[in-house]
Amino acid sequence: MGASSSKDTELENALSKFDEGQAEKLESVFDSLSTDNILDKSKLEKHLSPYFPGNFINQIYNAFNVQAKDASNIKVEKRDFLVSICKVLKGYLREKAAILHDLSTTNIYESNFNLLLELCKTLIEAYIKAVEKSGLGSSHMQTGTTNEANTSLAMQLTSSIPEEKHGNLSVDDVETWMQKEVLVTRLFEDVFKACFLGADTILDTHKHGLKEGCEPTVEHMPRRTDILLPCKLDFQGHNIKTIIDIPAMLMLNHAVPLECRHIWRLLFATSCHGKSFTTFLHRIVYQGPTILLVKDREGAAFGGFASTSWRVKSSFVGNHDCFVFTLKPSVVVYHPTGMNDHYMYLNVGMKTIPNGLGMGGQFEYFGLWLDSEFGPGHSKAHPKSTTYGNPQLSASEEFQIEEIEVWGVGVAPEQEEQERSVLDREIDAQAILDLIGKERKSDGLREPEDSD
Questions:
Q1: Where does the TLDc domain start and stop, copy by copy (predicted)?
Q2: Domain residue spans in the chain?
Q3: Cα–chain-centroid distance for residue 241?
Q4: Residue 442 has pLDDT above 50, yes or no
Q5: Domain 10-197, what fold?
């Protein structure tokens, strides 16, 4: 976060990148943290202690002026502070990479992979603390986190760094990594934004940028790149312990299309809606893009993102935005390979083809399958599923469901009732028949639909 000989120009350029309110806030923060117009290390430690451990705060302090040869003589003036914060929040990727490199360096010559991994975990933990401190984060904290979850996400984010680079990462290496792992850059920005502009700046219910009086419909929703967690997490009035935690939500929300990131809507959870495939079906069809979360009885957690509405159909639907993933024991996302278009499948009431929900693979050999009996499922991949390139997602190839959740992501679509067949609109009636042990006489008589 070094100084420059052209101080006034650099300071002027830095301040021009902030709006008036932000610039005033940053100057005010520096004034509160300084003594005789010099950044006071003890005051900085107290200010950042809600977010970072002491040793990391010391690295931040030193990084404010990396040109100083003797860290004990560092004197950070207001212009150095403002320019440095500008590089973090508004700077070029190269500038951010240089700062991250400085923060993960054991000395001025070497950057260690293990320290970068620890830095990632520190940023994740700090971000979650900022969410908790914000006035809008109470619903997000309902999902919670664990040390294991934070470590898992940090390991996933650093897994793309080549092993041969682990001993000595250069600024170029860090920049290349940040280009690939954009989530790291966003976390870095938001954590420092929370520290110096306030925790409420990272969760904004108006982040979607809608004008006053504009309804949040799909066609009005801009594609924003700066949304990490959903601006709104709607539990639909239910108080449940979710399958997903905040680190996994960060990863998945970053993987879905931009227009799906601002709001998550709980559509179905076995913990509050019971274990009925009929109810499950009724609550997830025609709801737009969704995230399916499954926990099996052996403790593995996994699922898939459906890019289009689930609908009962005898053929595969969806598109290349679909993906599957694991959450436990590790957080990994698997995108389509392009080998086929077997993205998503949902069918009931047919005697000649599978009845249930599937993603990837093929009939009877799905990458992820939930049977309509609502208990058994499978994840078959030897060695990998053709559609998504994923290995086995569940703990065992054949598994039993422990819990399921489905979240609608993005704005709820307008009703698509006109697209439903008469049979598909009778789900409520079928639920009653299921209770008395009878079948619909029309089951098995429906002709397979033509592929779209």
A1: 242-410
A2: 10-197, 232-409
A3: 18
A4: no
A5: Recoverin; domain 1 (1.10.238)
